[in-house]
Amino acid sequence: MKTLILYFSGTGNTYFIAGLIHKRLVEERINTDIESVEIFPPENTNEYDLLIFGFPIYSCDMPGFLNGFVKNLSITKTKGIILFATMGFYGFNALYRASKKFTKAGFVPLLTEEIKLPGSDGLLFIKKESRFANKILSKDYRKLPSIKKAVENIVNKVLEIKNANPLNSEDANIPLFNVWAFPVEFGLKIAYPAIENLLKRKFWVNDRCTKCGICIEVCPAKNIHLKNDKVAFSDNCYSCLRCVHQCPEEAIQIGRFTMSSLRWKGPDQGFNPYKMLKKSSISEL
């Protein structure tokens, strides 16, 4: 059985969990590849028997720009899929909706896992020199029981599938719709766009900027460019906040409240999308 871990990660949380899952599956001698949706052609999913798909929860849902990617996934036979999502607060019905979208694309959802990690948006309200920031940065997230449990649940499901009969629609395990979360979701879905639109207009770059171009390269929305020899932002922002957290000079700000706030590169502070994307572009030459 050949397994693919496919993920999108804005600031490193989903990347971190995907890496833990990959490490455990390799230890269990499961033939597994790990790829980012940013560099993986969706039609290549045909090469795999099982898909593990991870994403961060934005506005109570899977990031909207992934919908097109899901629609372009090419399958010639029914494939099982395991979904996991990282979140800073609460997952609401994001995995329910994602399961429905993948079912429509021809997949059979077999397991879903929500994993709580520090939210990259909330971290921008924390001063980087604070005791709370030090606590967040010094924590070993690999040892958190909730994370270990979620990873092991996924690994055990893969091992179960390895010896299972061919999949059919009756094997689907779509999470139940949480009706109690719906009123809160409804309110947030009204509020979030207004908040995001406000924040998008607040992006700017201070004089620490060296015009290194990293923000331009790593922006998944291709929303950043040079204008009159200065970094400028367009109107296609996904609100992933990757540019703010990845700027090596911490020059990108949102209004004034991020001037001395914590920057986040994932639970192990090792998330480097620039390196990943550059490696991919070199391999294509």
Explain what you see.
By secondary structure, this protein is α/β, with parallel strands linked by helices. It folds into two domains: 2-171, Rossmann fold (3-Layer(aba) Sandwich), CATH 3.40.50; 191-283, Alpha-Beta Plaits, CATH 3.30.70. The protein has ten helices and nine strands. Strand 3, helix 2 (66-71) and strand 4 form a beta-alpha-beta unit. Helix 1 (13-27) packs across helix 6.
Notable characteristics:
285 residues; alpha/beta; Alpha-Beta Plaits; five-stranded parallel beta sheet; two-stranded antiparallel sheet; 10 helices; 9 strands; 36% helix; 18% strand
Distance between the termini: 30 Å
Characterize the main sheet: 5 strands, parallel
The CATH class of the largest domain: Alpha Beta
Can you tell me the residue ranges where pLDDT is under 50 for at least 5 consecutive residues? none
Describe this structure in a few short sentences.
By secondary structure, this protein is α/β, with parallel strands linked by helices.
Note the topology.
Blueprint: E1 2-7, H1 13-27, E2 31-36, E3 50-56, H2 66-71, E4 79-87, H3 94-104, E5 107-116, H4 120-123, H5 131-138, H6 145-162, H7 182-200, E6 203-205, H8 214-218, E7 224-227, E8 230-233, H9 242-246, E9 252-254, H10 273-283
Parallel strand pairs: 1-2, 1-3, 3-4, 4-5
Antiparallel strand pairs: 6-9, 7-8
Helix pairs in contact: 1-6
